[in-house]
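INFO  loader      accepted 1 record
INFO  loader      residues=346
INFO  predictor   begin
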Amino acid sequence: MAEGVTKVLENHAKVIEENYIQPEGQNFRSYALSNLRGGVGKSSLAFNLAFQISRQHSLLVADVCAQCNFTEMLLGEFKPKVTIYNALQPVILGPAFGEAPDDISYRISQRCEHFKGGKSAFVIAGNPELFAFPSALYQQLNMAHANKNTNAVHNLLHGLRKVIEREAKIQECDKVLLDTSPFYAGGTHLAWCAVEAIIIPVRVDEHSMDSLELTLGLLANPGRDFQVWNERAGGLVSPKVAAIVMTMVGAKSRIRATPDQASRMYVERALGIAEKHASVFGHGDPSDAFVLTDDFHSAGRISGAERIPISELRIGRFHTVEGRRLQVNQSAERYQKQLRYLASMI
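INFO  predictor   done
INFO  writer      dumping tokens
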């Protein structure tokens, strides 16, 4: 444990002091950002990570959270006619809902100009109707299981995967990134079945420790719902955990590039939870999956409110957010380095 914490902190210092990035990423194509609690900065992280990935790879992103925060950050005031819900209904609920639409994604740079200058990036928009989706999905799954129809269970659980793979092929995208809801049932369950790897944002607080334990337990425990349904589908392959992103890590320490004592305590606890579930990680050593990101205050508020990736913010520039005049301070540089490092991991 002590060696793992030391490794995480030393790696964090290299990122801040030396602008360190991983020379080679992991061999996963598709990722879901997921944490079974709200308020950890998941959609903001998804927005910024999508920007970073799109600098190097053509990218398809999808919003399977009914709150649609990710969609709003990418598309702004634009109201998409076709959403992930339109694509999923015929696949999951049957032909009575019509044919799946052929054209379901939107080019991000047409609605968020900051994405220009990179590779092609497309978004499948979210829909608030996903709030009601779990009941319909599990009704279908239970019917299929009651009829001992393993193929039907398999096809239902891979419904989102088929939608994503088809659109990624059409748009010639190298990478896929999904933003999920803080609730496991429904869209998040399908997202875990659709991707090869999961990125878990974890805030430095008590509730996030509980959520991390729950998330990793669902992925690892054969007696929990996710693995039970995987077996009912004939043995689906589970995604690996590609990264644990510790968010809101305090930097008010006397030692440069070192988190404060409270943050270090939560990092140690999160690492302990990760080591109990080491089998679900893409890394041989779970400590290699940890990324620390700053409590970035005004930069994060500006980024979210004005739909500007943090990497595009200019130090010293003022922005007005909800009637308050905020300045991008030097701390944004640390977060820019941390985002580049996270993107280099995947």
